[in-house]
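User: Run a structure prediction on this.
Assistant: Running it now.
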Amino acid sequence: MSIFSYDFMIRALLGALITGASAPAIGVYLVQRRLSLIGDGLGHVALTGVGLGLLLHRSPVIMAVLAAAAGAVIIELVRERGRTSGDIALSMLFYGGISGGVVLVNLSDAQSSRSLVTYLFGSPLTTSRQDLTVMLILGAAVLAVAVLLRPWLFAVCHDEEYARVSGLPVRTLNLVLAVTAAVTVTVAMRAVGLLLVSALMVVPVATAQQITRGFRATMLAAVALGLVVSGGGVWLSTAIDTGPGATVVLLAIAGFFAVTVGASAVRSARGARARPAAPPDAPAESLDAGEARAGA
């Protein structure tokens, strides 16, 4: 029976496709800035928002967006102004965010273990119409920022000092990128989970870099790969009865290794064809004459 026979499967697939498009679109900037792991830190902070939402009986998604956005702004300001290095600030996000989330979820009257597993590792099959609407709106906003601000965000990510000298509002663009990354984390919360979202933001980009040249081509290829692994992962998880979020990530990693091996084989074959052929053996007289001239 086709997965399209069930409404919840259609919602799960659509939610995964939204995530697969938006996560790599903003992840390409994070990879360019060497902030590939910031998605993990923001995911942990978003868990605090989820716990606060469950405790106060508010929408966990909205509270997660607010918490992740606040965390993104804090980490960007600390990175820019403070003496604390970026990796220490990220560590604070990691540990403080997940600890606060676990404590708040345990204090709420929700089913603690089930709630944690749902938000940490994703549960696309439980996506409601309201959840899908929120994901669609937030995903469209992420794609709009990634596409419409591409020249300016790329300039800041490529060379921040040059962008500042050129007159670009570097601080504002950095904050926009950080907040957009936080929104992306909450978009992916249902599809792949807060602990696995960073993989979907990074792995398709790393895969695309193996086969493309140029930032724009890398972004387009990464989004296409994100759509393929997200949709394929949801379908495969229903066929073999595995966790959808984990299946999506494993499929993305498998694609990375396959593309890397294939690209290496193609480069090796091209190098072998481009290498000039060895000249035929010269007669003994010619060799002797050449040696004599070299000696002279």
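The mean pLDDT is 80.
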